[in-house]
Amino acid sequence: MFRLPLGPEGAELRPLETWQADEFLAHMDRARETVGEQNGLPDVVRDLAESRAFLRTYAERQAADSGRLYGIWLDGTLVGGVLFRTFDPVHGVAEAGCWLEPAAVGQGLVTRACRTVIDWAFTVRGMRRVEWHVATDNAPSIAVARRLGMTREGVQRSAYVHRGRRLDMELWAVLSEEWHKPASS
Whole-prediction pTM value? Predict the structure, then answer.
């Protein structure tokens, strides 16, 4: 297992695995209300069996090279995560996403964690494009996409149902050649 520092003392990125189902459920319980405002994850992880099932799904996706899941820990406590919801090395396209509980907001953890996994996707795995799908009213997630240097490509109207409400979704993306472009260019 690896542990990558994320900047602030005590912050690190690690794989989030099935054996951590108890810890993941406790994290979801702390984050349920705020994360659930924009993200369906708390609605599918309501008990230990669902926590295990969700983590097992990502273990299977990783084994099939079609997804990845990583946790963000702060001072030894799981406070969020980043993932590749989809990962298609044949076509070179992945969809990244994130979530974070309120106690860890404002420290740059999600942006640093996303940079780490996106950089890996481009430099190690040879991906050509990483996408970011976000509800049009999710300002914090849109801000992350901007900080990652992504380009807003459009809006998919009424594309996603969350808690009985149809949402418009923005599509953001960054291409490998943009990711590696020097900052001064």
Answer: 0.92
